[in-house]
């Protein structure tokens, strides 16, 4: 059985059922993770069990996510995070890809609309916890970007370059920041 990966901001339980431990904090009676790691519950005597999050320090890997682009603006794309490190999220988490985090090169030429569209499935990395509602994500490396997209006509598109996808039925080409296949 896969052990659940805990990410910062994830709710772990109530202070009525647990005592907060390492790697957690309390807000409005809810114990929340302050770091990425594995959940540990220690039972001791007659008191409530202690819930902690143990860091994954031995891993120097920045967490990857799979997400769905939900909306775009001129400055960023909003993403609903579906998987973290191939583990499904238990709650709804949201991230944003700022225009400066879309590509590593030609940053001044990047347009959000030429990189993503609502409905695209993307691979990205978490670069920061961000604000209270969003994680900051990046697709600046070659292996990050759009994995799956549909054309205006609802057909599955295929990548033809690192910045374009094509509808094989209509031959229409649309701009995307494509992920390099593994």
UniProtKB/TrEMBL annotation:
The domain of life is Eukaryota
Q: Quote the protein name from its UniProt record.
A: S1 motif domain-containing protein
Q: What is its main location?
A: nucleus
Recorded GO CC terms: cytoplasm; nuclear exosome (RNase complex); nucleolus
For this UniProt record, the keywords arranged alphabetically read as follows: Cytoplasm, Exosome
* Residue ranges of every copy of the S1 motif domain listed in the record: 62-141
Q: Which GO terms describe its biological process?
A: RNA processing
**Cytoplasm: present as a keyword of the record?**
yes
- Molecular-function GO term, any one: RNA binding
Kindly list the places in or outside the cell where this protein is found, as annotated in its UniProt entry: Nucleus, Nucleolus
């Amino acid at each position: 059985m896969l052990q659940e990966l805990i990410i910062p901001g994830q709710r772990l339980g109530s202070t009525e059922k647990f005592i907060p431990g390492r790697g957690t904090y309390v807000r409005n009676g809810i114990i929340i993770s302050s770091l990425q790691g594995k959940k540990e519950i220690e039972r001791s005597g007659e008191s409530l069990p202690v819930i902690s999050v143990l860091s994954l320090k031995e891993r120097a890997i920045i967490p990857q996510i799979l997400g769905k682009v939900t909306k775009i603006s001129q400055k960023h794309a909003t993403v609903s995070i579906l998987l973290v490190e191939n583990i499904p999220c238990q709650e709804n988490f949201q991230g944003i890809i700022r225009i400066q985090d879309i590509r590593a090169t030609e940053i001044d030429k990047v347009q959000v609309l030429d990189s993503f569209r609502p409905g695209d499935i993307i691979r990205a990395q978490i670069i920061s916890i961000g604000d209270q509602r969003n994680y900051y994500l990046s697709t600046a490396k070659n292996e990050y970007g759009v994995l799956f997209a549909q054309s205006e006509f609802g057909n599955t598109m295929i990548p033809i370059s690192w910045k374009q996808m094509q509808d094989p039925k209509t031959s229409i080409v649309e701009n995307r920041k494509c992920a390099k296949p593994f």
